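Exam revision sheet. Question 4 asks you to relate a sequence to its structure. Input first:
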Amino acid sequence: MAIGRKTVATLVVFAAIVTYYAMIPVPPNLSSSDNNVLRLSAFIMDTTALLRSLPTKAHIHWFNFHTWLGTGPTFTDPSIKYRDMRTDGGVRIRLYEPIKHKSRRAGLLYFHGGGFVYGNTRSHHGLTHHLAARLDAVVVSVDYRLAWQRPFPASLNDCTKATVWFLQHAKDFNVDPRRIAVAGDSAGGNLAAAVAARLTFNSEYASLPKLKFQGLIYPGLQFLDLKTPSFQQNSNHSSLVLTKEFVGYCISNYLTGTTELSEAMIVNNHTSPQAKKSIAKLISHDLVPAKFKSYDYTPPGSQDFGDTELFDKYSKVLLNPEASPLLREDLHGLPPAYIVTCQHDPIRDDGIMYARRLEEAGVDVTWKHYENGVHGMFSLFGGPTSLETGRQSVKVFIEYAKKELVSAAPTSML
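Answer key, structure tokens:
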């Protein structure tokens, strides 16, 4: 049977697409299977960008599907039960509980990633289910409001409310309130750091039990300097999930509810010369070790530029340390931090800078850097699109969390 012209044309287009993505550059020293996952991720990100032009939420569902696929959507463990519910304050959560009775368990609040625009408790279900099972702990996955629903500080407020609620009601779930931590990946890492800071420095939370640690998985911790060494090295590669256009789109939506900052942000034109000087010590490239600046990096030149009018319009949120935890000058007293960074990640240096500044402030820091790691690996650990570094990073995090939350259980309850 003869093949029709439309069929031939479709096959040609399909072959062209496959060839294009097969030729996309990927980081060196990765396995062939990991390279294929990254090329698929490039396709996902490109199609997500195309779908954003449609007057629908198709781009959100498409992106979330990819994350869901990577976290191991078929993962189940009969020892864990879960349910969707709301806290007293109305925040939606997915609560995971071990079925087997135990005197007191540890607890973990998890804030999903997705650039404050994407993700939900369902997209990260495989990951949070896995954490609950391997830690034998109660895990609260927070379905915080996203930027397109309500911009900053709605996400942070939701995560704070959920954390406070869990600390106050821990015993209702057979959890020791002294063994509760917060963690999150990417945007969720930002929220975990900001929640930890709120509970540490705001007097209204002084009576609450202290968080055991803050787990910051390749967190984005500042939105003023998008010319860090890691951003210069990694933001132009579509196979690395985060591109500068994607970052600009997500952060502008998160901070303003619009895309007004998007284009200016990716060239550092969204701040004023004075603002750049005022935050120079807090977000200094000098905090990044020399080995991370040995290639594809140009040190900052003159900072005498910026759209002052645009900055003045959004200065309150841009300079707010609750949006950008790296802007907080005094970090003394924060909970111990577990920080993950990836070599091939535009926001790698945010985590490195924060680790350095926390250590200088006397905070206990465990820093895990993955030379072959890419942004998003933590949620690509269990499904058909998983990465070796994803599986490794989740395993190592669980080992740390077990030591801090489970093995160090107090001998008595207050």
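Marking note for examiners. DSSP finds 13 helices and eight strands in the chain.
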